[in-house]
Amino acid sequence: MKKGENYNFPKKGSKMTVDPIRRLKDIQAISKMLSDNPRNNLLFVMGTNNGLRTGDLLRLKVEDVKGMKVGDTLIIKEGKTGKRNILVMNKSIHKSLQIYLEKIKPNDEDYLFKSRKGNKAVTIQCVNNIVKNWTRNINLKGNYGAHSLRKTWGYVQRTVYGVGFEILCKRFNHSSPAITMRYLGIEDKEVQNILMNEVG
To answer: What is the pTM of this model?
Structure first.
């Protein structure tokens, strides 16, 4: 890496988009790194397991999720679009949530991702910086931020589990699958891959 160059920030004048964390081993490395920080671990796990915007996660309070079991859903109203969406409690989120509740012992009325400065949630800018630190610490090249968590969920769903763009489009509340393809940044790679399929 050249002097003055940074893994986590775009070059001057380039478009400000963030990348998903593409490799499962990098996701696992960050999870391991956060094992002794229950709040940040829950933020990472919840952000990469649900496909919700970070801003919507930051509005959650402890009482909203405290009694949820695996498979339960919580209806939320998206801050950006005003549309309804759901948070689903899968096994990974439930496990991280229980560790968080046991170790932090937050009050029910506390924000789930409470700032260390008073009774308010951490800000998007704070999460941007946190995610940049995580990716920098594992020497991940690219531009990362709060939105990388949501993109990571979609990228893994598509490339690992083969979930169709139509379903991801619905989950992201995008207006068309084409937007979802561009959003996840995997269109060119996928087109190249299908051209390797032999016909006849």
So the answer is: 0.84
